[in-house]
Amino acid sequence: MTELLYMDDSYLKEFEAEVTRISGEKVFLDRTAFYPGGGGLPNDVGWLHKVDDPEERYEVVEVGKEGGEVYHLAKGHDLKQGDRVKGLLDWEKRYRVMRMHTGLHVLIAVLNQKYGVLVTGNKVAPDRSRVDVNLERPDREMVAQAFEEANQILQRGIPVKIYYLPREEAMKIPGIVKLAKALPPKVETLRIVEIEGVDVQADGGPHVSNTREVGKLIFLKLENKGRNNRRIHFTLEGS
Q1: Integer Cα distance of 46 and 63 in angstroms
Q2: Architecture of domain 3-89
Q3: Which residues pair with 70 in a beta bridge?
Q4: Where would you tag: which of 46, 92, 165, 193 has the fewest CB atoms within 10 A of its CB?
Q5: What secondary structure letter does DSSP report for 41?
Q6: What are the phi and psi torsion angles at 33 (to 5°)?
Q7: H or E element: which one contains 162?
Q8: CA-wise closest residue to 201 among 213, 190, 187
C-alpha cells in the first residue's frame, strides 16, 4: 500500500520516498504527495529525482492507482527498487485544481440547499471545469444567481477542515452525499471535507484551507445534456 500524503496535507509540494518496485516506466513508491486522479479530478504531474542526484530529473507525466499502490510514469528514468527519491509536484497546476475543487463544493452546496440539486458527473481542470446536475429545466438565471451566492460565501474566508469518521457515523450526516447515483467507497473510515457552516462531504481530493483562496468563480455556460440533466461550465477569475 502506498501512503497517501496528500490526504492530510494538500499543500505538500515535495517529498522523499523509497522506490518499492519498477514496471517499465512506472515507478511505485512507498509514499507519495502526487494525487493519482479520481472523483472527476485530474492526476498530478511533476518530477522525480534521486535524493543524491538532483540534477537528473525525470518528468512524471501520469500518476494512477493499481490496487492499493500508486504509480508514477516517469519518462526515461533509470531508477530501481530501493532507490531514495524526491518528488516535486507541478504546483501551479495542483493549486489551481485545489481552488477549482473547493469552489465547486461551495457551488454545489448552494444549488443543493436552494433547489435540491444532486451531482450526476463532474470534471475539474486547472483552466476550465464542469459539473453535471439533475436540474429539471435549463434556467440560466437561476444558475447565475447560485454563482453569485457561492462567490459571496467564498469571500467570507471560511476554513476548510479535513478529518476522518467511521463510515457508519459519517453517513448519518445530513447532506453528506450529493451524488445522484453513487455513494462513498465502501471503506470503514471516510475522509470528510467540511467547509464550516456551508458544506460537509466525503471526499478524497486536495482542497485549499480557506475559501478566500479560491478567488471568484466565473459562470461560462449552461448546456442541456438530456432529460433533467444540465452541464454547468465555469472557470476562475483571471483565467
Answers
A1: 10
A2: Beta Barrel (2.40)
A3: 65
A4: 92
A5: B
A6: -100, -5
A7: strand 160-166
A8: 190
pTM for the model: 0.94
**Rounded distance, CA 235 to CA 239, Å?**
7
Do 79 and 85 meet the contact criterion of CB atoms below 8 Å apart?
A: yes
Residues of the chain with CATH 3.30.980.10: 94-236
Give the residues across from 66 on adjacent strands. 69
pLDDT at 122: 95
pLDDT tens-place string over residues 28-79? 999 999 999 999 999 999 999 999 999 999 999 999 999 999 999 999 999 9
Q: Which residues pair with 15 in a beta bridge?
A: 87
Q: What is the CATH number of domain 94-236?
A: 3.30.980.10
Task: DSSP letter for 42, please.
Answer: P
pLDDT tens digits, 179-229? 776 667 778 999 999 999 999 999 999 999 999 999 999 999 999 988 889
Can you tell me which residue has the cell 531508477? 79
